[in-house]
Specification:
The protein is α+β, with helices and mostly antiparallel strands and 176 residues long. The chain has one domain: Domain of unknown function DUF1254 (Immunoglobulin-like, Sandwich), CATH 2.60.40. Helices cover 27% and strands 29% of the residues. The protein contains two helices and nine strands. Strands 1-2-8-4-5 form a five-stranded antiparallel beta sheet, sandwiched between helices. A four-stranded mixed beta sheet has the order 7-6-3-9, with no helix packed on it. A hairpin with a 4-residue loop joins strand 4 and strand 5. The N and C termini lie far apart (69 Å).
Length: 176
């Protein structure tokens, strides 16, 4: 009987450790893969990359909306904070910036209903200084992804939105 209890305890303990390990590792692994793909294997860090118009064959983003224009910035705060800005779209079109930490947590969501003149903030770690007078978003990790989504349901609107989003910036404050 004593041996059966020990084996049961070992099985339950292994299950708990495996579960916690899986819950901790999978988000980081998935985000690492997404950051690698979105940055062109690290070639585009701390700068926005602009997606083509979404079609039925698009799959860079899981189930992308055909009504949206996407841009992404894979960020790395290890060398300092970033100044992030997104100009408004033409005709007051909807713009949303979401900031994701390395574990897939959404740490900020800003949009043009809150900021109709455009979105602007400093992304930094807790221990980094930020310019005064600018909204601050604190990231719990050095690396992550910023996703820009803009309403663009037609080819004509996509062309207009594409011009506006090319002004997006995700760079150190002295380079913005």
């Amino acid at each position: 009987m004593n041996r059966k209890l020990k084996l049961l305890g070992l099985f339950v303990g292994a299950g708990i450790i495996g579960h916690v390990g899986l819950v901790m590792a999978v988000p980081h692994g998935l985000m690492s893969l997404a950051m690698s793909r979105m940055s062109g294997d690290g070639a585009a860090i701390n700068q926005f990359v602009f997606g083509d118009r979404t079609t039925k064959d698009s799959r860079r983003v899981v189930r992308p909306s055909p009504d949206l224009a996407y841009a992404s910035c894979v960020y790395d705060l290890s060398k300092g904070p970033l100044l992030v800005s997104a100009a408004p779209s033409p005709n007051q079109g909807y713009v949303s910036l979401s900031v994701f930490a390395a574990n897939t947590d959404n740490i900020a969501a800003l949009d043009t209903t809150q900021y109709p003149q455009g979105i602007r903030f400093v992304l930094k770690r807790k221990d980094q200084a930020a310019p005064v007078g600018v909204q601050v978003v604190v990231s719990p990790s050095d690396k992550g992804i910023i996703l820009d989504r803009r309403l663009a349901p037609t080819a004509e609107m996509f062309a207009e939105v594409d011009k506006a989003r090319r002004a997006d910036s995700c760079a150190p404050p002295d380079q913005s």
